[in-house]
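Thread title: Can someone regenerate the structure for this chain?

I was given the following input by a collaborator and told the matching structure tokens would be attached. They weren't. Posting the sequence so someone can regenerate them.
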Amino acid sequence: MQQVVGFADESAFDCPRGAPLGPKCTQAFDLKLKEPAAEMQCAPSFFDRHPEIVVAVVLWLASNAFVAVFAKLARWETGARYYGMSDLCRWDCSWYSSVAGAGYDNFPQRETGDKANWPFHPLFPAAAYSLHHGLKLPLSTSLVATSKLALLLAIYGFLLLVSGLTETTVDRFRAGSLVALNPYLIYGHAGYAEPLYFALLALAFYLVEQKKWVAAGATAALVSATRMVGFLFSISYAVVWLKDVKWRSVLRSDNLNKVIGLFLCPLGTAVFMLYMYRHTGDALAQVHSQAGWGKSPGNPFIVLWDCLSGHYWPRVWGVMAVVALAAAVWLFKLRKPELGTYLLLAILMSLSGGFWATARYVWWQPPFLYAVYCGLKRYPALWVVYVGFAAGMASFMIIGWFSGHNFVV
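Best answer:
Regenerated them for you:
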């Protein structure tokens, strides 16, 4: 009744008092009656307001279940030692554990084959140490838990990055599954820095695309403190800047923000280099110490040719690298030069150090999965092929993780 009383004023009906209700008056009356109904509509649900968060959580739970199931199968059939998530901490996870537990080595250790933990950048072990110190968890558990939590952020960050391409909930689940269930998803659950690196890099690309320059630069600084290759984002940042038609107006206030963001991008690498210089006397110790693993900077194209002309796993990794390089070129065609530039340089940089770890350097790059999603969206029939490959490789890598064979790294 209150709504009807509110309409009693003749201005509400758009007709004079006492006049007969003609079509014009009736139409105005109907419109006024519809206004309260619109106001009484239910507020949007959490899913409607934050679809990326809900999708990310669901996919993250599915990814954890996938790893747990196949890790148990590995224990049943191969005698693998898996009784909890801390048993996933293997291979390079032990190096991160040494950083989180005792800091960086003063010099290479004879018992580890003249190796030092210098190549392992500090942000990931620092994050794991916070769990270790705050929750009193064992270091191995803290590292695995940190990588798992970072995987959730990685899925969410990637969904934001591709948000311009995802129109429906099905699209979001498909895009997020490229991260949550990718062929090398074991690295998202095994105490490695890959998911944290992926998450921060995806967020940095999203923020720079949104023209949030300082936030993008600050996030990129964290990327470069996670993986050495992260400093390459400075180039992608500059590419986005140059795409802006107003870039020549250097006196504008928003350009000051761009300059600040650009200088922030490599800050993580710069600080780590200064620390290495003070700690070891060599600012590039993280590069030079790769010699302990038999790695030294070389020609990436020669390494790629050696892979393709070889057999078994090196050839597989070589094919993956070629696909990644082709994806980088395609990103330029898609008018995403910032993504293409980063992916191209990141793959060439990883190949310059040898073919080991090429696969995870490919599959844990946001620009590469962005290109994969664009391809699958354009040719949806290929989803069946991709899912078969991803599921098979992911399950095989989980079982192989406990085998002791170094093809998994």
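The longest helix spans residues 51-78.
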